[in-house]
């Protein structure tokens, strides 16, 4: 059969620079987004702060230029038609719940120091929400502890099996099954044992029609091909792959768009000092509503003066300005997409956890990333990125979006109670106990069982310690 060249038309999904930028902006906190925007405005002459635009000094938020990424910086982005700007009397809007809805501590909750998140804590949080048995979670915790800062598992599975003892005795096949679950967490590619596996995991989540995916998978599956790639490029692989040079170059471009150190991005992005709310939640006429805060939508737009100059300047200057204009438009669209995704997630959270906002931790229902992803039609990793380091200003204070999620514990009635709700119940029981005869963990277990919640005494002890509550013999007060 003679080799021949032929052309054909088709559609394929590609990991474009715009998509990579949108994903990167999505996982940023508000403070990081502001820094990113400031750097873009400084380096791109086609971008300008909205208040610096000619004739913008006398404009109100409603009259802002159409090219800006937001309206007034002092008002949240409108979600519903009956949004009333400035309505921040949380107790009144919430039906008169009074002091229970006040901000935490003194001063603005938006100025509290943010808790630093590491790769390990980010993965542990996802593990806690996964539908795994206690035994598999124990194996998962050991695997997470063994990951390095880049997200790789360099420790052999035999050593992991030894590390789990004496809590559990697990074979390598069982550990490998839990590792495969861990490899589905965000960031994609974490838990890989080498570069080839890391690239294959990231390629695996791409749609089947992604241009160059099949060839990229072949390259990633062969360490020798991957090692040969930096030295010889596409030409060095053509003889073995037996595919057109153009297709191989497309696959190489796709491989280069992947992250060889997926774990490093978590630690690298964690440098916030203050909590800045990304959205505002309030209650109006008995309905919970959400809107993006002004800080979440920086006021930037296209510089009209430079845009008009593109038609008048020389070819070289015109090419430069056109590329900068395209980048500016991509950035504005990515910021808009970030806000839309965040609102989608928050709307779902409000539907699922309205009782939590109304009555507190005791009413928090079990909710996982998978449930939210299925409700709004997004991937789990996208939901995880959307809520990472994001905060909502609510009548109960400024809360991390992770606070709306909780794993479930089975009840005698066949339903589930969230671990957060159980902790709230334990705290209430201890607050109401006789100080001369504190409740033991066994007694707390029996009281929970009487309420229909079956948990082990060891689990009660773990929840108590997580809330920094002393054991019963240390809580005895004779006075």
Protein model, in words:
The protein has 479 residues and is an alpha+beta fold. The protein has three domains: 17-82 and 89-111 and 272-400, no CATH class; 119-265, no CATH class; 408-474, Arc Repressor Mutant, subunit A (Orthogonal Bundle), CATH 1.10.10.60. It contains 20 helices and eight strands. It has helices at residues 17-26, 30-43, 90-93, 119-129, 134-146, 157-164, 172-182, 195-204, 213-221, 223-241, 245-256, 264-269, 304-309, 315-352, 354-359, 369-376, 380-387, 419-431, 441-450, 457-466; strands at 47-49, 279-284, 287-292, 300-302, 391-394, 397-400, 408-410, 416-418. The strands form three sheets. A four-stranded mixed β-sheet has the order 3-2-5-6, with helices on one face. It has a two-stranded antiparallel sheet with strand order 1-4. A two-stranded antiparallel sheet has the order 7-8. A hairpin with a 2-residue loop joins β5 and β6. α4 packs antiparallel against α5 (134-146), α5 (134-146) packs across α7 and α16 (369-376) packs across α17 (380-387). The relative contact order is 0.13. Mean pLDDT is 77; it is low at 55-115 and 269-273.
